[in-house]
Here is the input.
Amino acid sequence: MQTNPKHFLTPQDYLAWERQQETRHEWFDGEIYAMTGASREHNLLCGNTFSTLHAQLRGGACEVYTNDMRVKVSETGMYTYPDITAACGHPQFEDAEVDTLLNPVLIIEVLSDSTERYDRGAKFAHYRNLPSLQDYLLVSQTECRVEHYRRQDESHWLLSEYRGIEDVIELVSVNCRLLVADMYERVPVQP
Here is the structure.
């Protein structure tokens, strides 16, 4: 993520500006951050995971979104674009544009060298302020490894790590199962 110090925008100015852009930008505390392109592995992991979730959620009470659905962490003011997001029941949006989700129950981030530290640290610290969030997955694109943080209560999260290609991740918040083998299909990773 790169900072662009030329722009210090209010949230309203950011949304008006962002909705006119061809590329995506995150926003926090008046600054915008350009989103960079993704690798083949990143795209495969996102596509495989999204399609698995989408197939299981069809016709149900939950919706799954790709990385073009912006999420606002109202409690901290951050606007961000997770790789995959899901909402259940009645998705809540910031305004009539219906492009900024307020109540995700599941967020998945595929790690890259440039974002891993941020996704694990500051970004997750923001996400933990979302009262609706129940599951947070960090997916490695260099090795078969998925870290699943599951909310236990207001301030406690349980970490489960999946390293086996035959592992199954239970996502209670959306009533789905992710097979690690399906997530990593065609993704060249270290054993």
